[in-house]
## 1
Amino acid sequence: MTTNTRTVAVILAGGIGVRVGLGIPKQLIKIAGKAIVEHTLEVLEASSHIDEILIVMNAGSLRELDELKDPQRFPKLTRIIPGGDTRNDSTQAALAVLGDDPRTKVLFHDAVRPFVDDRILRDCVDALDDYEAVDTAIPSADTIIQVDSASHITRIPDRSQLRRGQTPQAFRLGTIRHAYELANQDRSFHATDDCGVVFTYLPDVPIYVVDGTPENMKVTEPIDVHIADKLFQLQSESLSASPESPDLTGKTIVVFGGSYGIGASIVELARAAGADVHEFSRSSTGTDVRFRGRVKKALKSVYEKTGKIDAVIMSAGVLRVGPLATTKVRDIETSIETNFLAPVIVSRAAHRYLRETHGQVLLFTSSSYTRGRANYGVYSASKAAVVNLTQALAEEWADDEVRINCINPQRTKTPMREAAFGDEPAGTLLDADIVASVSLRVLASAITGQIVTVRVEQPEPEG
């Protein structure tokens, strides 16, 4: 077994994103508040199996990555270089700057595969102790057919022996360099990936395959952007399962709507976690979140007293049930103003303070945001708007390092819900303290632009 060899991860970000159709290189599309390439870089930076990182970027968009050149945040990132016209050209651009040690382990990974996990990285690096070339792949769930120019099936391979290729593809530096040297002597050379170069020009070199994961998807088509966004949301749900309570000692937190329900639970738990909590509501302080002046006054008073604000939570809301056609216009306006306009007002007013602390806004939506519910459609629509607001502001505020997230609690036992729906079966509602506990873990995390779902735990069936 070879030891003490350097391991370099090369992020291939040379694509221009024609298929994704959003007018910018796909690796720069923002999901969950960050460009896809940034998410990918964070995974590789966090891996103990990677010593150094190199990005090969579309030459026309090279300057878009200048903000990633941060030694404090990404100490493993040593350089960002322009790529070529093809993937193979970009690979060779990286090979040209990777030094002379042929034993160096090199992992080539697509910038638009942000869900690669540390197990895959470890398996690729470990496999290079015994092999010179390694691929990542998953079994094919679909039958693969081969067709001719007339679109007639000519062959149906055995699916059990087929795999769908992913990245990373990993190599000994000397091996992949030699393969490209031979390929460049072939005028008919064409390959869509780096393992294909080794397979074609070094046929005696076995290529080992490690198991990928379905989540390690490549963002290529427009629908992939939506799937990736949902995967980030599912990742953030792990916060719901964590039993750990964060330490909020020294944090200054402002809670609007903290006099009852989830807001009151947040105030209590945050104080128990060491935070300096300032609560505002109509009933306790006369603060109506629908009015910009009152919100600004509340935030200013906290800032003047403490000198900083680390987080602002907006948990106030109203829920009125009834047919839209017979609901009073003023009740409709109040619902929209409280459930959507107020989060806008609070977020806007909080930004100036959170920019100083690189803090976070935490908003609340409802499980009804995914589908409008009869008899409270205005409420559902407003909560859907809060989700869109969260995702949009995560992008707007990324440069200021201000985070914004949204809690999506399933039905929760609160005075507001009880007033709207009356008594409901025991065990079907979340306890407000559970939602509050997840909310505090989100505050203590580094995520942004996430819709964090909190669900009722269903009991395991007996027998």
## 2
Amino acid sequence: MVRETQSNKNAYKANQATSDDYSETGYDRGHLNPSSFQCGELRIATFTLTNAVPMDACFNRNQWWKWEKTLRTFLRDTLNSDFGSATVYIVTGTVPNEYLSIPQREISEEPGRVTVPSPQCFHKY
């Protein structure tokens, strides 16, 4: 994993989002694979922008954080009750909103590089 720097940012822009794409947009870089579900170097890897999706900052820091915490506790308790023998697979993703992307034209010379997910992807099933 290579950290984004000023010198390599332009190379990354050709293939993925950069930190600048999220700047001043009102969106957090929401984790698809939550960092709190990982340990050590695996946790560090969750902070890459290839594991991020634009998420409303208030929603990410409040409701989504509570949901991740609840799910992590449930999984930990379930695995402990199975003496650690269970395997868990969590599949995540988003549904792109064809009408909304960041950064906005008013704040960027390169607008619309990152698609914001549709609200339907946040439903609990």
